[in-house]
Input
Amino acid sequence: MRAVDLIQKKRDGQELTSNEIKWLVEGYVAGTVPDYQMSAFAMAVYFKGMATREISDLTMNMVKTGQEFDLSAINGIKVDKHSTGGVGDKVTLILAPLVASFGVPVAKMSGRGLGHTGGTLDKLEAIKGYQVERSQDDFIKQVQDIGVSVIGQSNQLVKADKLLYALRDVTATVDTIPLIASSVMSKKIAAGADAILLDVTVGEGAFMKTVEEARELAQTMVDLGKAVGRKTVAVITDMSQPLGRAIGNRLEILEALEILQGQGRQDITHFICELAQIMLGLADIEKTVEEIRKHLENGQALAKFEEMVVAQGGDLEDLYRPVNVAHVVDIPAQESGVISALPAMEFGLFAMRLGAGRAVKSDDLDYETGIVFEKKVGDSVQKGEIVAKVYTNGKISSELVTEFQKYVKMNDRVQCLREIIEIIS
Ligand code: URA
Output
């Protein structure tokens, strides 16, 4: 076989056979198919798409390029969760211990942030001492002992995705359904959970810009999961504005603590309880949202989170420390009225420039910086009232305030206010 023939076949809109896909994936990981040919193939997929059978072949061949975690030593139905990326998305920090507080084991591998999106690992590393690298044995032991662990994705998992994702990132081929679905699901399948909740984000700050696209991605991933015997449910969720109040690693840890103490904003608290309800349902436990919320109010979820932090080397005193930055800048509303949009992408990039995110993978983070919104879309404000606070270690200038204010849209049609737009199962 020759890579050029497979590229041409896809370029011309034809389906590749199972053998051809296997050859391509194995060759790429072995280094016999070079980056430039894989880039051309990814671009051909971007324009011509893939049939369901091709996506399934691609996914399963990717799974085979690395270690497959065996979680069978952990009793019970192991549930996992994955988000396709967002701004201010601290959901895992709350959801994992919340679900575990009902006795359902959560063994979760998370990733780092890039560009406007944040990553759960970076947030956890904002806690002094927290270890995200764990051997498979330690990971399993911790879930057996306390019911929850959130670690970094093993380097041994799905080698094809590591290579291909880095290539897609620099060849404008990330945002295509066959490649996102195979990337996400190969990792979820290899990570070994019995049941998977997929959070497919849609909107300005997400890869999927329309609900139709998000629905197609969600259905593709649900079908892939089910085909290999994993219970899989997807929720399509709004990412047109940042999730919750905070963007920035330490600030998001503090917001997660607020929610874990039952003192978070109603919207994000309710949303997380709904996700927990679906995850518990995947583990055959039926609970109402109110019953789930009780575990936030009575400290059971918080206690589980603290147990996890301690088990992974984190310092509990540091966990509750306030942020430490040189300046906190108030952003006043420029006019009175209703906030109609807070574009997630713009604020994600704004926080990135403060040091809370990475423009390129090698960038260092400033864990303390970021944004806290005092108002969200749909809230009324008076002119001069504080809309948000910017936490920065950089120099402060009037341009910083003006730039922020430029992104706050007022008195227009209010965009989506539902967190869960649709459930696909
Ligand atoms: N998240 C992933 O893991 N892979 C993608 O391709 C996109 C989002």
Notes: DSSP finds 17 helices and 13 strands in the chain. Residues 84-85, 165, 174, 179-180, 183-184 surround uracil (CB under 6 Å). The mean pLDDT is 95. The radius of gyration is 21 Å.
